[in-house]
């Protein structure tokens, strides 16, 4: 009887339904647990950063304070990786020149290299340049101010990322340091000349990034795309463009990365960059010629030739971003470590290697855990990108960030990259309008788009532009007020 029941079709249908429920339960469990994995791994990294700080400091004074600061620095670095790095890799992924996995691998390597090799100067600006340490009453007051700045910046970036607001981590940490300084010692504590230079760089850098991106796109269009023989023009110009990238990267690396071994002046580094750029240009000529064989004479074929320079420019931008934005995570942390260890909070900041490693690993880890969604958004939602346009964005942003890091200015890589995207988009709009006017002049009877139709066909989403401007205005005062409130809360608790 039991065997017969087991073979009953109704029994088998019930069994199938039960198995389907279990399958659906497993699927639902995987979807529920997936959002928890990222934050869980991030928490593990933050805890490990605190343990590493305790290990390096041993039984030193104020070990607990530095451990807490290391955890906050790791937390901030994770947010930078989740938020800012998407601006570097978004154009390449949006143009389908890199897969998501390839973009993350390149970003992890070059972000870490930039932070560890060339991140020192901007860290010093964040730690000491924004507020005057001598205005602080004691080392403890200075430490709590830096702690409040770090926590406020991390909380603000986390909140903004959670709600999808495109804010700048650089704006957040600079506002946090300024707000804590004002809360601790009044407005006189702020180095207003440095803040003025930083504020000016926030305005100049996205505009400069947009202009450079538009200029490179004009070069590509006028010298390659609008030529009768596009492939022959690309064979001539693509090696030059790659040489420009190699020369810029080499100059910066020689000037910043080798100064710990041997001091090299600006002129020498530029000559080294010029030499490497020329060698790269010569080496790329036969490679591009070989790659272009058999390609059809149309714009679609050019995408193949621009894959190499786009990948190189994305790597260059990641290096520059690591050099510049590691300061946002470890600048205040470096100041806390030094003040806690020696009581000296007015001298130059010496940056321990383990502090830089926390910043570099945190940025890379944040990208790996939380970056893919934002990479897709940056690569496709502001304006349509192809490999040529994405190359212009990445190269212009890289050059601008490198110059800013060269000068020790903590500019916003977010707004530089977005400025480059808007520069490309607005140039395309201007160029399309120019070509339409020429066509209208040549053939007056030809039907053209109405003014309303041309407005609808805009190539840059104006809503994104207004959102970014609004976020830009809000971030600094919001982070400053939050930091000041945290500092006052700390002083009340500690008496």
Automatic annotation (TrEMBL):
It is found in: Membrane. It is a multi-pass membrane protein. InterPro entries: Phos_transporter. The chain crosses the membrane at residues 36-57, 63-81, 93-117, 137-161, 173-192, 198-220, 240-258, 270-289, 301-320, 351-370, 390-407, 413-430, 465-490. Keywords: Membrane, Phosphate transport, Transmembrane, Transmembrane helix, Transport. The keyword Cell inner membrane does not apply. It holds the Pfam family PHO4. It comes from the Bacteria. Belongs to the inorganic phosphate transporter (PiT) (TC 2.A.20) family. This is Phosphate transporter. It comes from Roseovarius pelagicus.
